[in-house]
């Protein structure tokens, strides 16, 4: 009877958040700097469908400037806003939980030391529990460089590679064949248990393939590739998200990609796995069709997809050209989603944090995110306050609660009815 489609463009920030200086990110602007990079190359960024929904207008509200090289449309087909984050971190769980109406208002645990990052007692327990010969890494690192540096030694010794970043995360990389995928997953489950006292948001399994120079097929470490068998072991949200509320109310939540993992599978009725943006798009279209069938059975359905490659392949790797091309490819396929919408459906596109591919380092950036919405009786134009800004990502969760007729969330305002009942209490 009621459907909503929520697409998360992982890391697609639109300008530094009001508190960005506290994170060392004052001046970060994922969209703006990608547009500037492309304009300088003589190939202006072309996102006509996102622009029609209000993307460039949202960016203008966030930064006070129009992105370089783009021409904003005179007429819009969607409602738009720039949303700020009130969660304490700039990571995936914090952003997604807040999108679903549950901001992370506590402090995550972090491993701050660049080298020898993990407590010896933690590693000793992990090695003993998992019967490991030891571990490699134990540092802050980006995914591919650490594979190139330590992948051969990992294969030769059987020691998994453990590393972290500025996020609240413990990552374990291992070769799918030489170490074993199931063994990697089991190792991550042990790590998840051991890390609970440290309040670490996620343990991430980072499987890879490829052989060493002395391997059977003669490949080099430069050919190591991470696979689509990544798995995130997140802690559960502290209170029910709008996903959980909908599920508990008899509705259906179809999580595409890593959505199930991000929410620790709380409130996710069915997971549709896919690897790569085209496959994620195909799975999203399939889920929308399935939601249509369920709606005929008077079941309310939320389809939620995370498009992770923006973050992992282009943001963290500081590749503005790749990021731009991925955005344009996404934009070209967006009409396939729009064509499946019914007038009463609600479509929302947003992001969970920033990851400016022109920024220093390899970590996420604290940014505002776009909220582009269409359907459900919305009038094209700005959402939120008169400036087109939302005080929290939780406005999305609150609006979804209204759309599905659920009890209100504890945080956020409902932009579907112009509610002004924003709460940010404990």
Automatic annotation (TrEMBL):
<dbReference type="InterPro" id="IPR024052">
    <property type="entry name" value="Phosphopentomutase_DeoB_cap_sf"/>
</dbReference>
<comment type="function">
    <text>Isomerase that catalyzes the conversion of deoxy-ribose 1-phosphate (dRib-1-P) and ribose 1-phosphate (Rib-1-P) to deoxy-ribose 5-phosphate (dRib-5-P) and ribose 5-phosphate (Rib-5-P), respectively.</text>
</comment>
<dbReference type="InterPro" id="IPR006124">
    <property type="entry name" value="Metalloenzyme"/>
</dbReference>
<dbReference type="GO" id="GO:0008973">
    <property type="term" value="F:phosphopentomutase activity"/>
</dbReference>
<feature type="binding site">
    <location>
        <position position="311"/>
    </location>
    <ligand>
        <name>Mn(2+) 2</name>
    </ligand>
</feature>
<protein>
    <recommendedName>
        <fullName>Phosphopentomutase</fullName>
        <ecNumber>5.4.2.7</ecNumber>
    </recommendedName>
</protein>
<keyword id="KW-0413">Isomerase</keyword>
<comment type="pathway">
    <text>Carbohydrate degradation; 2-deoxy-D-ribose 1-phosphate degradation; D-glyceraldehyde 3-phosphate and acetaldehyde from 2-deoxy-alpha-D-ribose 1-phosphate: step 1/2.</text>
</comment>
<feature type="domain" description="Metalloenzyme">
    <location>
        <begin position="3"/>
        <end position="407"/>
    </location>
</feature>
<comment type="similarity">
    <text>Belongs to the phosphopentomutase family.</text>
</comment>
<dbReference type="InterPro" id="IPR010045">
    <property type="entry name" value="DeoB"/>
</dbReference>
<keyword id="KW-0963">Cytoplasm</keyword>
<dbReference type="InterPro" id="IPR017850">
    <property type="entry name" value="Alkaline_phosphatase_core_sf"/>
</dbReference>
<keyword id="KW-0464">Manganese</keyword>
<feature type="binding site">
    <location>
        <position position="364"/>
    </location>
    <ligand>
        <name>Mn(2+) 2</name>
    </ligand>
</feature>
<feature type="binding site">
    <location>
        <position position="10"/>
    </location>
    <ligand>
        <name>Mn(2+) 1</name>
    </ligand>
</feature>
<keyword id="KW-0479">Metal-binding</keyword>
<dbReference type="Pfam" id="PF01676">
    <property type="entry name" value="Metalloenzyme"/>
</dbReference>
<feature type="binding site">
    <location>
        <position position="353"/>
    </location>
    <ligand>
        <name>Mn(2+) 1</name>
    </ligand>
</feature>
<feature type="binding site">
    <location>
        <position position="352"/>
    </location>
    <ligand>
        <name>Mn(2+) 1</name>
    </ligand>
</feature>
<feature type="binding site">
    <location>
        <position position="316"/>
    </location>
    <ligand>
        <name>Mn(2+) 2</name>
    </ligand>
</feature>
């Amino acid at each position: 009877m009621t459907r909503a489609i929520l697409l998360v463009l992982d890391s697609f920030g639109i300008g530094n958040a009001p508190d960005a200086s506290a994170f060392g990110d004052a001046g970060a602007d994922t969209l703006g700097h990608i547009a500037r990079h492309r304009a300088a190359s003589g190939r202006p960024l072309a996102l006509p469908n996102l622009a029609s929904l209000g993307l460039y207008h949202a960016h203008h509200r966030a930064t006070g400037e129009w992105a370089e090289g783009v021409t904003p449309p005179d007429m819009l087909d969607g409602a738009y806003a720039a949303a700020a984050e009130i969660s304490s971190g700039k990571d995936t769980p914090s952003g997604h939980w807040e999108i679903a109406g549950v901001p992370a208002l506590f402090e995550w645990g972090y491993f701050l030391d660049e080298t020898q990052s993990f407590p010896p007692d933690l590693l000793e327990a992990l090695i003993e529990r998992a019967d490991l010969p030891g571990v490699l890494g134990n540092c802050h690192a980006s995914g591919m460089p650490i594979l190139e540096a330590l992948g051969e030694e990992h294969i030769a010794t059987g020691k998994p590679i453990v590393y972290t970043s500025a996020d609240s995360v413990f990552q374990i990389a291992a070769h799918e064949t030489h170490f074993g995928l199931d063994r990697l997953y089991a190792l991550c489950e042990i790590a998840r248990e051991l890390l609970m006292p440290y309040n670490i948001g996620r343990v991430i399994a980072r499987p890879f393939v490829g052989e060493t120079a002395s391997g059977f097929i003669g490949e080099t470490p430069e050919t190591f590739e991470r696979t689509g068998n990544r798995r995130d072991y997140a802690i559960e949200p502290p209170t029910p998200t709008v996903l959980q509320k909908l599920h508990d109310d008899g509705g259906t939540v179809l999580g595409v990609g890593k959505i199930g993992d991000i929410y620790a599978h709380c409130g996710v009725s069915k997971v549709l796995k896919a690897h790569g943006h085209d496959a994620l798009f195909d799975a999203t279209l399939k889920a929308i069709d399935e939601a249509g069938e369920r709606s005929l059975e008077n079941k309310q359905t939320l389809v939620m997809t995370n498009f992770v490659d923006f973050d992992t392949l282009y943001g963290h790797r500081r590749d503005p050209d790749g990021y731009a091309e991925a955005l344009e490819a996404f934009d070209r396929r967006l009409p396939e989603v729009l064509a499946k919408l019914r007038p009463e459906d609600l479509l929302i596109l947003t992001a969970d944090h920033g990851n400016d591919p022109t920024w220093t380092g390899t970590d996420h950036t604290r940014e505002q995110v776009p909220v582009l919405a269409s359907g459900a009786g919305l009038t094209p134009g700005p959402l939120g306050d008169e400036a087109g800004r939302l005080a929290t990502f939780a406005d999305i969760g609150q609006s979804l609660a209204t759309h599905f007729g659920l009890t209100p969330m504890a945080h956020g305002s409902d932009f579907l009815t112009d509610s002004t009942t924003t709460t940010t209490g404990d």
